[in-house]
Structures are given as C-alpha cells and as structure tokens.
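Appendix B. One record, verbatim.
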Amino acid sequence: MRVTHLHRSPVRHFAEHGTYSWYVDIEELPRLSWWLRPFARFEAADHLDGAPGDTLRQRVDAYLARHGVFIPGGRVTALLMPRVLGTAFSPLSLFWCHDAAGGVRCVIAEVQDASGARRAYLLPAAEDGPAAVADGVRDAPFAGEDGYFLVRLPRPTESLELTISLHRDNHAALVATWRGARLRATAGQVLRLQLTKPLAPQMARIGLRLQAMLLRWRGMPAAPRPERRERVVQRAVHAPAAGWGANSHSWATS
C-alpha cells in the first residue's frame, strides 16, 4: 500500500511511503502459527476504549452505542495494522459497520498521532462520494486551526483507494491517499513483508515524527493538544449502501 501526503498550504511538502494493513472481520481476527505470531498480532486493547477483557467487537459496539447507533446482527470489517514484535501503532484504522442486511450503516475512523494518542471519528456511510468533516479539525495531525475535511473511505474490494483532503477557502490545503492491491495472507506473504516492509508500526511512528519535524522547520504551526477522543460528523453526501464481499485474513499492500 502506498501512502501519500501532499501539503499545499501554509507550506508545500510531499511525502510518500509503503506500508501494509490487514482487511479483516473483527469477530474472526487472524491467529497465525506460533512462529509467525510475533509478526502479526491483533489485540483489542490497541483500538478504541474499553475494559481490559473486552473483545474488539465489544469496543466497537460500545463506541457506537455511546452515539446512538446499534447494528444487531451486523458485521464489522476493518482495515488494521497488526502488532509487530510487540509494538502496536496505526496512523489510520477503519471500521465499516454493517447492518443485518449487509449494508454499511457508518464508518469509524480512528487516527493515532506520533505520541500514541488516539481519536475516533464516526463518519456517515457515503461510499460513493465524499463526506464533509468540520468537527475536530484542530485536533487532527498537520491540520491547523480551520477548514474542513472531505473523506472518501469505500470498503476495500480487490483494490484499496482512500482519500482524505483538508479544505480552506475552497482550496485543498492537504491531500492524503492510501492505495494498494489486495493479497491473500499466506505465511509466505507475512514473511515477505518482514523483508520488504520491516517493523511497519515502528517505522510508521518514526515517519510521522520526522514528517512533523520537517513541517515545523518549514513553518507549519503546531496544532493544539486534543481534549476529546471521540468525534461525530454529519452526513454530506447520501449514498445507498451496496452489498459487500470481503474475505477475512487479507490485506492491502503494494
């Protein structure tokens, strides 16, 4: 998966790197053989809030319930970066929340900054068009103090194509993209990734820190520390939810 960040204002900067994430059903999280497990583990404690013994599904349901959303009988698929050698860090985790009929009711987007702080946003299910996000802009990494986001987060199929852009004065000040192809999660693929993209969570955190330092050096103002973790945004574009055919234990990568 190729991740890009194009900053246009108040400073100009472009960054690109390769990484990977797994596309999973959160009630059927992958459990690899003991000798592969250090390179790909999924822990509920790495996402959202909850009690120590909660499953990831319980944490998702609790988050949704706090915002008046309930999906009895519905599945939740997610794009997650696994733990590698005991380290968990994911700049962007996505949870597509389906109703019992298979349609997407909403999307939870959880972002993590270089300090490790996590914030979750509840987004509308606008898979065929962008959704506008105005709340929480000041809390987002590299965002600044004003403007709004347009987010397009369709479920992965055989390919992945996500876009988040920050707009000010009718111009895109920042455009971030995630693009990749979907592969089966075989033992060979897991081992190959440890060679081609080693220590993915650790490198993602280092990359965020280096990018933040470079942007500050070029004149980007520091964003204030967030006061809340959870955000709710309003629907900007209504799109009917389509059927889905996600298979567990696969990921998007380059």
